[in-house]
Specification:
This is Glycosyltransferase family 92 protein. By secondary structure, the protein is of the alpha+beta class. About 25% of the residues lie in helices and about 20% in strands. A hairpin with a 4-residue loop joins strand 10 (about 280-285) and strand 11 (about 290-300).
């Protein structure tokens, strides 16, 4: 009996082993068969058609006898158009062709000629790729790949007709992933393709410079990070240091060519007399033989520190801002917190937003606009804004903090839609900081964790009379805040800190100078009208901000009743849906696309501005500042 049991067990194990071997063999044969698609079949695979019932879906196919259920390998298939497993032995010709087909919008945006890559192909291959590509483009059975638009309910608008000769690509544009699916290529739909080192002009951009001590001048620069220019002033060579971190650009923006630096001039000796300090510095680029000027500000520590403002607020670069109701909320909150100065880095906003800012500045709180314009178009119509992360907002913070220095004692660096919520005390931000001067007299930075509060109504208001902040009752609040350092925000004792960031704290600052405030005491409530793309937490209904919202509403109604005569505009248009919502949706898509491409693309505002033609839709109040090309 035991022998029979033994034979039975052996037989069972052998059967299982054979089944496993058979399954693996089938899988390998399938993959091998799939990878052996000939070039014509792979071209067919790249053809697609939009599903008529849902524009978010796209269907790819191979000949029926070699069909593979590749959807199991691609999650979120409806959001990731253009995947194909490319045979390893595919010719250079077909790799170039397939990249044109999967990334057409990217190549159509460039001025290069496809002939540039003629030397990589034989004459035969070159003629074949031209003929094949043109044939595919005029195939009426499917929309051309140029029409691809992802994750949107708005149908894509076909571009003007073109031929393959106007399309550029490079071998480098074949984007692959590591591991089992290393031959999976993803299209670049929104973002610009990565640049080679020699494609970007070797220049820097500057606007202001600061004398921070008797022998040191620092210049905020946006510079080519692939190949830094060589800059000099009065025979002093300007040294470059990343504005933040040891390496720049940072990992998540490493494909951005132009990034923030601090240019430093170490003087041999101090200026002998005050009148020897120049108002302007003429900076020379020794590589290009050109020069530009930046204005010099004296920010040396004063002998006696007397502050005009105890609490000020800094709003980082305001670009394409179109929701005036949100600006009203921002001012009402900070006035209630006893802030007496607001600094705003300005790139662009609507007329309505600008009038609200001016109205508050003329009547209720001191406001100063700090110009932070887009970078200028340079040689051969090259637009560096396509290759700069978010208009270099982090460098703008550094620049502004030095500009602000010695006027305001404490400066809160916050967004429009952020408020500080006190859990244990009923106080204001100004009073809290004053109390800290006694209990934490060494502290120079206060850092707060952030929690999302999502509101779901009053998205758009087209009349000042209708502005109210009653949407905080039963709002959806995350049950937990973001873990540090994610989305934390800081308040600075400005003159005692030399490096600034939108979220982070400089690691070189001694711990005794930083107060990482417990979230159970105070935390940032990030008021979201549009859901973000970050990790989702469990939410709960909360009315924590209801009383504050009611107070802001009452305060604004009183201001409107007593000072409406100073408002020029009679008709108010809030562009939340047609501008703000579309811009945020596009920005989120660029972030997603960058994640999918392992951070090899440059996330920037300019691509969404260009894609949505936002500056052509309405009139904008743009920054009056101007960058010097150095």
């Amino acid at each position: 009996m035991s022998r029979l049991n033994y034979i039975f067990c052996i037989t069972k194990k052998l059967t299982i082993a054979l089944c496993v071997i058979l399954a693996i063999s089938t899988f390998i044969v399938t993959l091998c068969s799939y990878n052996s698609l000939d070039e014509e079949e792979c071209v067919q695979f790249f053809k697609f058609q939009k599903n008529r019932e849902d524009r978010k879906m796209a269907s790819y196919y191979v000949p029926g006898n070699k069909r593979m259920n590749y959807r199991y390998f691609i999650k979120d298939f409806n959001k990731k158009l253009g995947y194909c497993i490319i045979p390893k032995n595919m010719s250079t010709m077909m790799k170039l062709l397939l990249n044109v087909l999967t990334n057409p919008k990217d190549y159509l945006d460039n001025k290069f000629s496809f002939n540039k890559f003629h030397d990589q192909l034989t004459n035969n291959e070159y003629e074949n790729i031209i003929q094949s590509a043109n044939k595919i483009q005029i195939d009426d059975s499917l929309p051309p790949a140029k029409y691809v638009q992802i994750d949107t309910d708005t149908p894509a608008i076909p571009p003007e007709s073109t031929t393959i000769q106007t399309i550029a690509t490079t071998k480098k544009s074949v984007i692959t992933a590591k591991g089992m699916f290393k031959n999976v290529a993803s299209p670049i739909v929104i973002s610009k393709r990565p640049l080679r080192k020699d494609e970007a002009p070797r220049v820097a951009f500057g606007m202001r410079a600061y004398l921070i001590d008797p022998t040191t001048i620092e210049i905020p620069l946006i510079s080519n990070s692939f190949q830094s220019p060589v800059l000099t002033w009065n025979n002093y060579t300007i040294t470059f240091k990343c504005q933040w971190g040891r390496k720049c650009p940072e990992y998540y923006s490493r494909a951005c060519v132009y990034t923030g630096y601090i240019g430093t001039i170490k003087l041999g000796k101090p200026f002998e007399r005050e009148k020897d300090i120049p108002n302007w510095l003429t900076i020379y680029n020794t590589l290009t033989g050109t020069s530009g000027q930046v204005q010099l500000y004296d920010r040396r520590p004063p002998a006696f520190k007397s502050y005009k403002h105890q609490l000020a607020v800094y709003l980082q670069p305001m670009y394409l801002l179109a929701d005036f109701a949100e600006v009203i909320q921002f001012f009402e909150y900070w006035i209630s917190q006893k802030a007496t100065k607001v600094y705003i880095s300005h790139e662009s906003c609507t007329d309505e937003v600008f009038e609200i800012i001016k109205w508050y500045g003329d009547n209720f709180i001191e406001v100063e606009i700090l110009n932070w314009p887009k970078l200028p178009i340079i040689e051969n119509d090259f637009n560096p804004n396509f290759y700069t992360f978010q208009y270099e907002a982090i460098l703008a913070i550094y620049d502004s903090m030095f500009f602000i220095r010695h006027e305001s004692k404490y400066v809160a660096v916050m967004d429009l839609d952020e408020v500080l919520h006190f859990y244990k005390t009923n106080t204001t931000v100004a009073d809290y900081l004053k109390s800290q001067e006694v209990s934490n007299k060494d502290v120079r930075i206060w850092s707060f964790q952030s929690r999302r509060v999502t509101v779901k109504k009053d998205y758009e208001v087209d009349s000042l009379d209708d502005v109210k902040f009653s949407y905080f009752e039963n709002a959806d609040m995350d049950t937990t805040p973001f873990k540090r350092p994610g989305y934390q925000k800081n308040i600075y004792r400005v003159e005692d800190v030399n490096r600034y960031h939108v979220h982070l704290v400089d690691k070189n600052i001694l711990p005794k100078f930083v107060n990482y405030v417990l979230s159970t005491d105070i935390e940032i409530m990030h008021i979201r009208k549009i859901p973000d793309i970050e990790k989702k937490f469990k939410t709960k209904k909360s009315s924590a901000l209801k009383k504050a919202g009611d107070d802001w509403t009452k305060s604004f109604k009183i201001r409107l009743a007593t000072h409406s005569h100073s408002l020029v505009r009679k008709i108010w248009v809030n562009h939340f849906h047609d501008i703000s919502q579309k811009l945020e949706s596009c920005r989120q898509q660029t972030f997603k696309e960058n994640f999918q491409h392992n951070y090899t693309l440059c996330v920037n505002v300019e691509i969404c501005d260009d894609r949505l033609s936002l500056r052509k839709q309405i009139k904008w109040v743009e920054s009056a500042g101007k960058w010097s090309i150095l």
